[in-house]
Specification:
single chain; alpha+beta; two-stranded antiparallel ribbon; 2 helices; 2 strands; transmembrane helix; membrane; Small integral membrane protein 1; SMIM1; transmembrane
C-alpha cells in the first residue's frame, strides 16, 4: 500500500513497526494563486498593516477629491 500525495492530514496505522503514523502535508503548491495571495496578504500582522495603510490612503484620496470638488463648486466667476 502506497500513501497518496495530497494536502492535509494522513493517518497510517499499518506499517512495519506496528506503530501509528500521522503525517501532515502543508504544501501550498496545489492551492490556486488567488488563495495563496489571500493567505499571504490577509492573515496575521500583515493584514493589520495593510488595513491601516489602506485606511490612510482612502482618507487622503477622499480629502483631495473633496478639496478639488469644493474648489470648483464654490469658485467665483471672473468677469
Amino acid at each position: 500500500m502506497q500513501p497518496q500525495e495530497s494536502t492535509g492530514v494522513q493517518y497510517s496505522r499499518w506499517n512495519e513497526n506496528n506503530q501509528d503514523q500521522v503525517s501532515v502535508n502543508t504544501s501550498n503548491t496545489d492551492a490556486p494563486a488567488w488563495r495563496r495571495v489571500y493567505t499571504t496578504l490577509c492573515t496575521r500582522n500583515l493584514a493589520i498593516a495593510m488595513k491601516v495603510v489602506g485606511g490612510f490612503a482612502l482618507f487622503w484620496i477622499i480629502l483631495i477629491l473633496g478639496y478639488v470638488t469644493g474648489y470648483y463648486v464654490h469658485k467665483c466667476k471672473q468677469q
